[in-house]
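Sequence in, structure out. Go.
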Amino acid sequence: MPSYITPPHLLPSKILQNCAWDTPGHNPFQGSKFHAILSSPGLTTKEQVFLATKFVFSPPQEATIHASHISSPGYHISPEISNMNFGKGILCTKVSRNWPQGHAEKASLYTIPFSDKAILIPHICNNVSVVTVIPWQSQEKGTLQDPNTIPEPASLALVILAMAIAIKISKHRKS
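Output:
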């Protein structure tokens, strides 16, 4: 697990291959979330730096972790959770959830516009995990699109319309 950004003393000291997340909040993450993101296996250095910067400077999207799936508005999220940092210096490469049906946990989701990877941080324990996300498919074209973007031709038309309205309002106020 090479990390060229995180000092060695901040890297996980114990790596487990398979873990069962049975009791949310039982063994909460006790390290630096920033450094956990910067050293997350399964992410490229570019993805690590982007997510760590987004973690510091941008609000997260809300997500909900269920026993069998993860949901967040605008994204399909793979139910698999990997590379979870929890406890004091523990990293688990593959995580299963053994929760009763109907149990759910709120979480913060940090996505990358140029990748299908994201960071998931449950509110109850602050564990830092990697998940795979896919923006919902556009119904019209069947292509993947970020649901929060406006196609450029529409943006240009809206900008021109807004400028025309602003000019008309400013001329109207002067008279």
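Check: Residues 138-151 have pLDDT under 50 and may be disordered. The chain is about 25% helix and 30% strand.
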